[in-house]
Here is the input.
Amino acid sequence: MSTDYDIIVIGGGHAGAEAAWAAANCGARTALVTMDPARIGQMSCNPAIGGLAKGQIVREIDALGGLMGRAIDATGIQFRMLNQSKGPAVRGPRAQADKYAYMREVHRLLRTRENLTIIAGAVEEILVQNGRCAGITLGASHLSATPQKLTAHATVLTTGTFMRGLLHRGPEQTPGGRIDEPAANVISDTLRGLGFELGRLKTGTPPRLDATTLDYDQFDRQPGDQTPTPFSDLTTLDRFPVIEQRPCWITYTDQHIHDHIRANLDRAPMFNGQVKTTGPRYCPSIEDKVVRFADKSRHTVFLEPESLETKEMYCNGISTSLPRDVQDEIVARLPGCEHAKILRYGYAVEYDMVLPHQIDATCMTKRVPGLFLAGQINGTTGYEEAGAQGVMAGLNAVRYMRDEDLVRLGRDQAYIGVLMDDLVTKVPREPYRMFTSRAEHRLMLRADNAPERLTELGREWGLVDDHQWGVYEQRREALDALRKTLDAACGLHYLKRPEVGHLEVLEILNGTDLPGAHDPRTITALLSEIKYAPFVERHVRDHQRVQRMEHRPLPTDFDYTQIKGLRNEAVHVLGKFRPATFGQAARLAGINPADLTVLTIALGR
Here is the structure.
């Protein structure tokens, strides 16, 4: 079939950018369609990348050839390794971004990517022919007086918060996907027309302050790491950090602020019935915190610069949809913010999403082959979670086009695998975000070993280019050389001691010119590998016992109603989600150990 493009990606957020990048990397003629190309890669909320578990995801995206790590390394204004006092498995790299520079860098990378075309337009229809996704129709615009049809072998839909988006600030209600940007209502209608079951979620954002109106003497200063670590292995240390670094600042709410919020809960959309959808439990609004944690006398507020170019300060910790006058009072009572000017008030946004039991772990929809979903449309929250889905959706869209087997990552391979498995096996009651606690294999899923876990797979799948592969091979050779040198010098058993760290290794290596001997990334990866080895070995043995059933496939057309002894709820859940493996079935909400026993017996026949 002749088509305009091989792959069409709808939406220029973090999921769309990674999907388009991945598809083009694989050699597919790719179109990225977005309403405003100037806003590709925009940070709608927090101007930061990474964090606990999220930083691991960014490292995985980078190991698979993605662009998020490269973009933040080039535009970060503060880099910190979180959880430094804990083990490497639960440490997470985080960077504060210059959000405008980040957006420009993502746009630059995409614009210079071979095989990729960026198109400005709003989608009017998703085309389906012979039961398969065949492309899209763009609405009329100043570029075309009539709707324009674009055909493709596969389409990736990444709508963010734009599907029937509705903004709330006190009694104010404004249709939109973000402030000053229109909603995408037609896509919701199109998906419903195709038979998809939609849900509705909510997220929010805090006020932004004028940084020149703050009293910094009243804040606690929070600097970045003195020797920061890049996200991408493609970033060279001699040129890092790339741009000027800035501190963040800390202040606190108090009981007076909490009392004022309680007195105005009847004007809060989340509490007066105006908003009936659920927001992210682990990123609550300040009004939600005051109600849920009534015993707390204060809450931390992180003041984070949004850019080197502007005076905007992001108030991390007081996300809110309260009316403007209440926000004025909250900010004015924060120590150091008595004379602060609010540049933009906080608001909440409600939006449609596709209930994710309608996709599989490859991001392709079960109802319409060739249609892939990624990002908040699947019920997730966070730039990193969106980017991870974008990589898998873009890759699998190309594999679908080429009639190759679609691929997925296992829970023991990557946080991306945990994310996708959770999405397709759990009913979303709130926006999903990643935590290290969600990963039962987190000892093996460290930020420091992402290249060893995934780069060879990325190369096999066509995501990793020659330059990145060369960097990976150099890293692998450096690790091997360091391991042999240290083993000969002191024995690897010595490096397992808790008190042995970077300084001790550098002393042992003093005077050597081994590649990687002075790269903290290489030393960190090697030390983590050695120290964790006995724990990982024990974990692997335990996991292998479980794995004998974990990966046992379940027929997609299996008739669960014919299994005697299986509870009605289990029959319903298994029939609805159609898990691909026994392991997925075991993690479904509503499936208990007794059901698994019955299922095991039935499968054994």
